Amino acid sequence: MPAAWSVSVAGETPIVTRAQWTNAGSPPSVTSILGQEALPMYVLVSWDSYAVPWAVVADDRHHLPPGPALSSLRAQHLLAALASGRSLAQVLREELEQSAITDPDHKPGINLDPLKRLEVEGSLLRKGRALAASLSAMQRRLERQVVGVDTLRARLAGPLGPEFVAAKVVEAFESGQQSRAEAVFTLAEIALAVGRVNWVDVVEHIDTTQGLALVTETLKRLDGLIQRLGDDPPELVSYARRAIGEARRCLAS
């Protein structure tokens, strides 16, 4: 082993050196916190006058933070993609195009269409129908049989899965884009969508215990997100907790 070596992300301070590793007792593994949003493709391992790139490999890619493109998508984009069947790439492209042509100083004129003027944008009925369509599509995605544990994990935690969508709903509430009541109701409906899936059929071709454990963990994360929203309004929070309980009972039956 070289007398001195270091591992660093290109252009940044080393994340670990031999001196640091030795002072830590030469452990078999070292954990370092990166200061950048995106996961690097490689790290530079340097010793003496050499510097060699080592590819970064993720043991579980579903535990990685979303990249900048996915981070910019809001809950409404994900739900719209589910309802329409469009890909996330298409939804993101349309969002970027819309942002590019939007003029913040533009003031729209008077709408002379009486039907348009009377239409209530974002009405409760319309939102309810849109949410039902989105979660129905999510349920259909979850109901497809899987041939590997990693596939199931991707369905549950991926960009159109219940965990990621629910986390985005909470983000929307915390940033003021969505009301608390709407966020609590949406999370409750996501939990019920998970509970309505026949998971025994979905995991037929993989280890059943391991597959059902992943779904149980998803419901646990959804429960944590509901608690993160707080205790108001109490009627909807009670409904959300009952939804989690019902989903767990369906999974156990």
Structure description:
The protein has helices at residues 18-23, 68-72, 75-84, 88-101, 114-118, 124-143, 149-157, 162-174, 180-195, 199-202, 208-228, 234-252, and strands at residues 5-8, 14-17, 42-47, 50-55. With 253 residues, it is α+β, with helices and mostly antiparallel strands. It folds into 2 domains: 5-57, no CATH class; 60-88 and 140-253. The chain has a 4-stranded antiparallel beta sheet.
- Point out poorly predicted stretches: 117-121
Count every beta strand, where a strand is a DSSP E run of 2 or more residues: 4
Total domain count: 2
- Give helix % range: 55-70%
Report the portion of residues in β strands: 5-15%
Rounded mean pLDDT score = 84
Treating each run of at least 4 consecutive H or I residues as one helix, how many helices?
12
Distance between the termini: 56 Å
